[in-house]
């Protein structure tokens, strides 16, 4: 039997679980079991699915183990994913099959989560363990790094480059760039809820507002 795990039984994990369940019901050709893995204080079952510790997950008798990580922090997601891979589990992609759109020429890395009502248009390159929450989109010719998080309703327009571990908050809008001058969201940057980004954001910077400005500058009264 194949065992599939959603790592993290918190809010996002509980949103992702039914998407994974529906996808596996349509696509899996092998007997399988779908569980949560959580080493915190959550005890199962949660919404009809057992909650196992990491140790218990790897103690199960399984022909193959698969996982995805439903944790918003890209840095934590990377640590958890590497630990699961080191122990022999394989990442699997989660996608709302009937309610998400992926058009032509896209490259999407392992471990992505495409929630309901998300769209990837054309010729985007997306890295490992990308999370696209409900009603978000990635437009043409974008480059998205590893462990990037889109909260609900993110609008990422064409020719944008988002580097590893960036977090884009709910309802944020990133203006379209050009192939010669893409808008760049630097590594580990945070784009605040509802921000409108019309120019590049430095690595590690937090920007908020319309137009988006660095939080540190706003705090200084500028």
Automatic annotation (TrEMBL):
Q: Which CDD domains match?
A: LbH_AT_putative
Q: What is this protein called?
A: Acetyltransferase
For this protein, the record's Pfam families field holds: PglD_N
Family classification: Belongs to the transferase hexapeptide repeat family.
Start and end of every PglD N-terminal domain? 5-83
The superkingdom listed in its UniProt entry is Bacteria
InterPro entries from the UniProt entry: AcTrfase_PglD-like, PglD_N, Trans_hexapeptide_repeat
Q: Which PANTHER family does the record cross-reference, listed alphabetically? A: ACETYLTRANSFERASE (PTHR43300), UDP-N-ACETYLBACILLOSAMINE N-ACETYLTRANSFERASE (PTHR43300:SF7)
**Which organism is this entry from?**
Pseudomonas fakonensis
């Amino acid at each position: 039997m194949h065992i599939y795990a959603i790592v993290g039984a918190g809010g996002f994990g509980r949103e992702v679980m039914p998407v994974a369940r529906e996808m596996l019901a349509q696509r899996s050709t092998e007997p399988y079991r779908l569980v949560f893995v959580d080493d915190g204080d959550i005890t199962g079952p949660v919404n009809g699915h057992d909650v196992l510790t990491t140790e218990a997950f790897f103690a199960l008798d399984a022909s193959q183990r698969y996982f995805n990580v439903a944790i918003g922090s890209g840095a934590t997601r990377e640590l958890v994913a590497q630990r699961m891979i080191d122990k022999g589990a394989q990442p699997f992609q989660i996608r709302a099959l009937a309610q998400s759109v992926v058009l032509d020429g896209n490259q999407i890395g392992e471990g992505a989560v495409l929630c309901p009502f998300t769209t990837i248009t054309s010729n985007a390159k997306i890295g490992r363990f990308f999370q696209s929450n409900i009603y978000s989109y990635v437009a043409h010719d974008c480059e998205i790094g590893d462990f990037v998080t889109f909260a609900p309703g993110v609008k990422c327009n064409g020719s944008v480059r988002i580097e590893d571990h960036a977090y884009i908050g709910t309802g944020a809008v990133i203006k379209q760039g050009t192939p010669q001058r893409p808008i760049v969201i630097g590594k580990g940057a945070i784009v605040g809820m509802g921000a409108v980004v019309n120019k590049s954001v430095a690595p590690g910077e937090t920007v908020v507002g319309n137009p988006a400005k660095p939080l540190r500058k706003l705090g200084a009264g500028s």
